[in-house]
Amino acid sequence: MSSVKIAGLSTATGVTVATLKYYLREGLLHAGAATAVNQADYDESHVRRVRLIRALVELGRLSLADVGAVLAAVDDDSLPVHDAFGVAQDAMVPRRPHDAAGRVGEGEADLYQLALTEVDRFVRRHHLDVRPDAAVRSMLADAIVSLSRFGWAPTGQVVDASLFDGFVPTAMAEAEFSIDSVPDPADRADQVEYTVVGTVVFEVANAAVRRMALEHHSHRRFARTRRR
Length: 228
Hints:
By secondary structure, this protein is mainly alpha-helical. It has helices at residues 6-13, 17-26, 44-59, 64-75, 81-91, 108-125, 135-152, 168-180, 188-222; strands spanning 33-36, 39-41. Helix 4 runs antiparallel to helix 5 (81-91).
């Protein structure tokens, strides 16, 4: 696209001028080429950046602080693609306290440690190359704790993570497709952007398809036969 003023950028991205100016002030969107006092031109790189911000905020549900961390990783040329992807992955995991002060529920801190042990076994069993401090480990541990609290395990114990073994083949196939779809451009930032967008969009798509499948099987099992 040819260079446009901020109003044109607003039209191209569907984001209000006020929001674009906020992104500029917060450093999420790089400055345009100055043409006069309080005037600048914007190009395709700005359109792509705004679309990335929207995907992270609207689909990924990230806070603007986390969006800033992801964008910093995208722009840091000294950071390898995989490390930048790890920053984005961690930012997309909801934060939850896990201390002994009771903020996570009576006795839940102990369950969380048991759940982390289950996650470690799960990672080793499936030979997953996942960082020891990856936030997704905490995410799976939280799911294990929640199921355990709802009676899926005896009191004081947690469910076995093998419960999720059946998810692995499909998840691995989808992840391989997503990562292999990342092009090999000369620009490293483009690769990081593709991996980040792919993570956000495919995760939303996977959740949508799974919920469709759940509704389908719920209908088959629980829906009452309609009378004529």
